[in-house]
């Protein structure tokens, strides 16, 4: 191969450099804030300490999004689904397991390695370490109480956050508007985000009095003009591929999302954009 020929069939070195510059520019020029969805959940098991630690190591990441459920004996557990079988070797509802029982469920991490379901205290330990180096770093805690309304979930999580002095580093979110109203009553200074598929439904819930200061729609659910979102934090979430599914290689062009009024994006694979 001559000095002016590219490698692996990609064209000249000049072509390769231009291509790399274009891709790099596509991601770096965004003004959107980037969050890790359940940690780095494309390349590591979602909502595990490994996924969270990998996210904390990404320069420029604004924060991590995660989920909480409550165990049979009242512990706040970091887990997305109401049932455990999608990501662990167990079956049934998480709420029917005690904390000790949940500790013994295995999450396949590949290469013969296993992870386990963390409790929220473990993630808060990591957050406290992270805010020592980045005081603005945040944790978005989604309360998974729209399917099963866990009693006292709001009191439990706010109490833990206040005991650790992490109030300024937390965003609470949920699909359940009444839960945000309750959170606001417990902690009037709490930062609240309302979840739904469409941004119009988020705005409807805010008009109903849910006390949210941010909307958390699906990234393809922006169904109102940008002008209606002026001054509102629009923290959009993605679904898509999660570990152990292989990455598709598709990359988002953030510009059209910004033009729709999205201010923050919650991604499964934030490490490729930062």
Key features?
single chain, about 270 residues, alpha/beta, TIM Barrel, eight-stranded parallel beta barrel
Q: What does this molecule look like?
A:
The protein has a single domain (about 30-80, about 120-270), classed as Phosphatidylinositol (PI) phosphodiesterase (TIM Barrel, Alpha-Beta Barrel), CATH 3.20.20. By secondary structure, it is α/β, with parallel strands linked by helices. The chain has helices at about 15-30, 50-55, 100-105, 120-135, 155-165, 175-185, 200-205, 255-260; strands at about 35, 65-70, 75-80, 105-110, 115, 140-145, 170-175, 190-195, 215, 235, 265. It starts with 12 loop residues before the first helix and ends in a 7-residue tail after the last strand. Helix 2 (about 50-55) runs parallel beside helix 4. It is built from 8 helices and 11 strands. Strand 1 (about 35), helix 2 (about 50-55) and strand 2 form a beta-alpha-beta unit. An 8-stranded parallel barrel has the order 1-2-6-7-8-9-10-11, surrounded by 5 helices. Strands 4-5 form a two-stranded antiparallel ribbon.
